[in-house]
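for the record, two folds in this file. i put them one after another cuz i was lazy. first one right below, seq on top, structure tokens after. the second one comes after a little note so u can tell where it starts
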Amino acid sequence: MAALCRLVVLALVFISALLTFAQTPSLHGIEVGDLDRSAQPCDDFYQFANGTWRANNPIPASMARWSRRWQAGEFAKDRLHDILEAAAAEKNAPKGGVDQVIGDYYGACMDEARVNARGIEPLKPWFAKIDAARDLAGLQDVMAELHDIIVNAPFALASQSDPHKPAWVLADIGASGISLPDRDYYLKPEPRFKEAREKYVVHVITMLKLAGWDQKSAAEGAQTIMGMETKLAEASLDNVALRDPAATDHNTTFAQLQAMAPHVDWSGYFKHKHLPTDVDLNVDQPKFMQEVDRQMQQNSVADWKIYLKWQLLDSVAGSLSAPIVEEDFAFKGKYLAGVAEMKPRWKRCAESTDQLLGEALGKKYVEKYFPPEAKARMQDMVRNLLVAMRDDILTRPWMSDDTKEKAMAKIATFNPKIGYPDKWKDYSHVDIRRDAFFEDMIAGRKFVEEDDRAQIGKAVDRGRWGMTPPTSDAYYNPLLNEIVFPAGILQPPAFDINAVDAVNYGAIGVVIGHEISHGFDDEGAQFDFLGRLRNWWTDADLKDFQARAACVANQFDHYFIEKDIHHNGKLVLGESIGDLGGAKIAFLAYQKSLEGKPRPADVDGFTPEQQFFVAWGQFRGDEIRPEAARLMVQSDPHPIAKYRVIGPLSNLPEFQKAWSCKADAPMVRPEGQRCEVW
């Protein structure tokens, strides 16, 4: 009998094991259905990797770009929608608790009938404040109040780690106060910029009329606004210059600030902001501040009132009634980005909640959708990528031992942040009401501004995050030498716990490598292991590095989106070095992860190496509207997706080997033109 019982137990264990095995999903490879088999990987890898998906999934009317990655970002908002609907339905949530704060904010935003019935009523108290100013001093008082709600005109105040004492936070005064995408839209003579200026003036007139101005006043006001903004644009650095941290590094005393812009009441402004006049201070663009001072001196109080009213209206337009929201979208969304229609209101309300109350919403998001095993697997990958970057640098024949030693110190002090912060922000004192969306938005903005300003004059809080947990993105901060990956990006197609390692290393692995490489791109390489802005290179090594970077800039200078419009290689240089270095070290890390293990089997007919590269092509497989592409080429430091796939991979011998590409294939750059930084 005992023997029979043992047999029964063994049989049950065996059956249980079989069932467990049957229920455990096998790890999958790339999305083979996305491939365009009519394209050759050695000819156009972007088309090969994701051409069928793009053909079968046209850009939705409410989006400027579309791919599996963008689809995943919108799917994350579906999850936020569920969280917010549940919070909004909770009628007895404790005041100041997460559910009350996010639920009432979202609920008030979703009450479109109430928002529309109020029209421009919420703006009237603010317009009255501006109108009540009798002189420049009164206007500057109102300007300081507008800064409290992140209407940063004509300059902005924010906290920033001191680039020379990065453990300390200083006050940073930056250029702001123009409404077109960048300075070139005001200044360049090409037809597309001239047309944008004409459309902008019409847009301003329409918006001012919706805010209660008559035709004559609106038309005259638009010309005043355009004139003031154009002069500010002329005094601003262009996008390429802004990428050089040395160009905006101007440690300034309070006395020097007063001398730079003597017609600004800096004592009153600092008192309003609760900042001592001896606070550590940086002025990004002294020439811009001199132009602000000139306009303070020479422009009439009436002109400044027009300008400030417009800056307020433009900043909060999305939170007002439907006619203003629709006109704001018609110019910024339809005209500038080519988007056909607005996102549904629930999605705009979810995005607004994330922007202003992001860690309250993010806490609920990670509790529900970010499992501990995902964080653990990401931590392993980040460690492997850092080891790969270290090994790669040590093998660079063009770097001296002295420079390598300093690079090793930087690798050793990288601080990875994954998923969400260890300490959540406290929103309990933010006064959010279910019946007053505009005021809720103002309260949210005040919290964001005060939370940032409170850091000034203190030691750096290294636990703070620059993105909210649901954000589908990542970043590198050179001043803190940290790489940050919010939970929102850690989902397919970037990261999939059910995918083989080759796919994860080819997607999120390259993203990790990209952010690590930012520590050694043309901008990040100017900061040392402590985050200080100082040269740690030997002269010869720096010259060699700059020549290698110039190769990448030249490569992207020759990537066109239209006949006469091409990328500016210097503008996209940092991101392109990041992609090139990221792809290389992610591949090295993947190879290193296989050491001592059996070679993984091919999946769906593709080798592990091929899957790695396809995963990157599928993650970066954006289709983009022509208008959005023009906007990106002009002002975005990122290349369009096609060239983020083709550009780095065409430089890699590992890619050529994986696909057996001939030396003269389009996806193989000639050896003399091949770029290699890391």
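(here's the note) second protein begins now
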Amino acid sequence: MKKNIHPKYKKVLFVDSATGYRFVCGSALETDATESFEGKEYPVCRLSVSSASHPFFTGSKALVDAEGRVDKFKKRYNTEKKPVAEKAPVAETKPAPKRK
């Protein structure tokens, strides 16, 4: 393997901008900004969303009800069954005579 071509792997502090939640994780991220966390100095990366602020993980946002989605689909594609119009009576046909 070639030497000095891979970025250096180190501990990086990730900060969620929405909630202020902080966690340290290993990364090859290159940044000039640093912050102190639990008595140590780490390079810092600011995140707009993390598991601490995303609605899926926090449960703060209610899921859309399935019935509403089905109604929306039916409205868009008009898949509801329409009453079938009465068909005109079909004239009876005689079966073809059998060949001997």
